[in-house]
Structure formats: C-alpha cells, structure tokens
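Lecture notes, part 5. Sequence design as translation. It can be helpful to think of inverse folding as translation between two languages: the language of shapes and the language of residues. The source text, in structure tokens, appears below.
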C-alpha cells in the first residue's frame, strides 16, 4: 500500500478491564493515498499463532465482525457529531455504518464503498491494510479536518477478547464514545502543503 503523504502513527492501548496473553502491542497508521482515499494500517505484534484469525474469504459485507478479531475506524468531520464506523476483518469481510449522533444510525449497504483489504501475517506480527474511498460517503467532507477513533478487537485461541483503542473513555470499552476520537487528520490539500514545506528544508 502506497500513500502520497507521510502517515500519522499512533499506538493503541489495551482497555484496562481486558487482558491479552499473546499481544504485545498494536500500532495504527493512517494517511491519504495518491487517489485521495483513506489508508489505514494496523500492525499487531506478539504471538500471532495464539490468536484466532478468521480465514480468507471473498470480500463481502458482514455484520457483527466485532465478535471476533477485527479492526475498526470511526471517522467524523471536526466539529460534527455525525460519524461513520468501518469494521474490517482479516478474512476480507467488512461493514460500514452511518451515525447521525452517538450510536444512532444504520448500516450502509452500497457496494461502491467496499474497502480494499490486504493482510500479511507471520509468527510474531500481523499487518492489516485497508483503503477506504471517503468521497463516496455523503456525510464526509473531504476538505474538512477529520477526527478519527481507531480501535481493534483481538480474539485469542481460548476465545478471550481484548479491546484496543487510541483512547479509552472511563467505564467499559466503548469505541463510539466522542472522547475516543483522538487523532486529527488534515485534508489532502493541507497535507500537500506540509509535504512541500518539508521538502524545501
């Protein structure tokens, strides 16, 4: 996966009420592609052989992916309470939802928003990549600064689930909570100016 701009990198933290025996850490990277799509990478480090990773399937939309190992991105325009949720499974399955406010929304079923997904796995690491075309979503303004909440659910061989996110609000795991939208991504035009300034140094 090739991005036009240097991606933003952040570490996800495990929710303190959940436990993982196999995962050492999860790094998330996000940036814009040359085609102005959102590029997401989740890199899991640990004993991957002890995780339940769903086998590859034909790309398709599926619900309740969060019940097993999956990666998630919540995207909103800065200053807006509306947001989109994307679920990605290592199997290639995906889901997308539109919310007009906190937890009030519905699934999106349009095939044209289907993300591009690739997965690379070894004994001690798993890298998951997804590319999402935000320009096909009416609620997302590509000229706005975006706020993102990035998260992961990891299932281990004995069925134990751990929950990872950029930031956890108080209480039980809640990836939808506004406090979890902890990463800001400027629009492609602003990133272009930033890259040009770096190149002139």
């Amino acid at each position: 996966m090739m991005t036009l701009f240097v991606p933003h990198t952040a570490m996800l933290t495990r929710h303190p009420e959940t436990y993982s025996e196999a995962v050492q850490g999860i790094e998330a990277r996000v940036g814009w592609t040359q085609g102005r799509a959102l590029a997401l990478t989740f890199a899991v480090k640990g004993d991957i052989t002890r995780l339940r990773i769903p086998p590859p399937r034909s790309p398709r939309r599926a619900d309740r992916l969060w019940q097993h190992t999956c990666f998630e991105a919540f995207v909103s325009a800065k200053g807006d309470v509306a947001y989109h949720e994307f679920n990605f499974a290592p199997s290639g399955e995906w889901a997308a939802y539109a919310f007009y406010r906190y937890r009030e929304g519905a699934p999106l079923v349009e095939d044209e928003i289907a993300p591009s997904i690739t997965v690379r796995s070894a004994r001690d690491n798993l890298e998951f990549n997804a590319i999402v075309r935000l320009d096909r979503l009416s609620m997302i303004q590509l000229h706005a600064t975006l706020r993102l909440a990035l998260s992961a659910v990891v299932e281990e061989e004995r069925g134990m689930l751990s929950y990872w996110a950029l930031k956890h609000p108080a209480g039980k795991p809640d990836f939808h909570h506004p406090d979890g939208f902890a990463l800001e991504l400027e629009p492609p035009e602003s990133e272009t100016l930033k890259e040009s300034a770096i190149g002139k140094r």
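The translated text above is only one of many valid answers, since several sequences can fold into similar shapes. DSSP finds one helix and 13 strands in the chain.
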